[in-house]
Amino acid sequence: MTELKTFETIPDGFWTVPVTGLKDLLGGPSLFYLKGAREPALFVSTLLHGNETTGFEAVRDVLRRHIEAGMPRSLWLFLGNVDAAAEGLRFLPGQADYNRVWPHTPMTGLPEIALMQEVVKRVTAEPLFASVDIHNNTGRNPHYGCINKLETPYLHLAALFSRTTVYFTEPRGVQSIAMADHCPAVTLECGQVGDASAHKHAVDYLEACLRLHHIPDHPIASGDIGLLHTVAVVKVKPGLSIGFDPDDTDISFRQDIDHFNFGRMPSGSVLASVKGEDMPVYVTDENGNDITDSLFDLRNGLLILREDIIPSMATPDARVIRQDCVFYVMEQLGVAHLPA
Ligand SMILES: [Zn+2]
Q1: Rounded to the nearest whole angstrom, what is the distance from the C-alpha of residue 267 to the centroid of ligand 1?
Q2: Ligand 1 being an ion, which residues bring their Cβ within 5 A of it?
Q3: Concatenated DSSP letters for 259-296?
Q4: Is residue 203 domain-resident?
Q5: How far is the CA of 66 from the centre of ligand 1 (A)?
Q6: CA–CA separation, 299 and 123 (whole Å)
Q7: Which of 219, 247, 267, 337 is paired with 106 by a 20 to 30 Å CA distance?
Q8: Same-domain pairing of 91 and 205
Q9: What tens digit of pLDDT does each residue of 268-285 get?
Q10: CA-based angle 194:198:204, to the nearest 5?
Q11: Rounded to the nearest whole angstrom, what is the distance from the C-alpha of residue 314 to the centroid of ligand 1?
Q12: pTM for this model (two decimals)
């Protein structure tokens, strides 16, 4: 397996190293334990995707504030794919996606799976306060938290970051699904890399998690959370070229595809122009069923939406579409879904 590096102190050079230099400084995926005034420890992971740097920059700034006087709460920090970070990539060719290989993943036999098992084993040897996994996305999205259990502490942990909260159960290999077995767990989506407001938002959130005495146990007020549920994912079939200029590629998405994120894309909208006669995308619901035909029509070379949807994570980045998806399909969850 990829060897996990462990640290109980901050190495020289950490405070100034660019994210691309972490690989050389640390030697690989790294788990830090920093003892603080209060237990149990908070677990923070970031750089599971090597090009999503807001989490690292934010957690380093939080550490910088506290390292002299001591952390307000003990902290486990996992810096994941520093190899991909060195190249500015989500993951390297030949690597698995570091946020698809955590316990409950349907994948088998990968070195990255053993790595995440080792991380979980170490950080869960003692109770945890909460788990926070920090990401960025591409395209226009609000900052939001994702949870995988509709239970009160999980909802509070997410609402502490943003009113917009996404509940999902697929893909199963993500960090927050694995950690939800052990403690309240959230994935933070901090918008686009380099966004100063995302950095500040993540810093403030981590600071709050370190200082919070306990996660509230009273039922969350329905007005404090706008809960959406991921019901399906839209992907491009393998082997097709993807772009945004109708003359160039097999499938060419509309350039403003990300403007609909967390809003409404109405029935009849044209999503893309398509070369050839075959449906270029496939849509899978959370049970793995193919529901492409209920969502899309292909007419006169145009991919047309058959019903109103709420998309999320749509992006004008062809590489992200290829590596991840075109977008997720969301539905609003009403108050009835909140625990009383
Ligand atoms: Zn990510």
Answers
A1: 29
A2: 49, 52, 135
A3: GGTTS-B-TT-EEEEESSSS--EEEEETTS-B-HHHHE
A4: yes
A5: 27
A6: 52
A7: 337
A8: yes
A9: 999 999 998 999 999 999
A10: 135
A11: 14
A12: 0.92
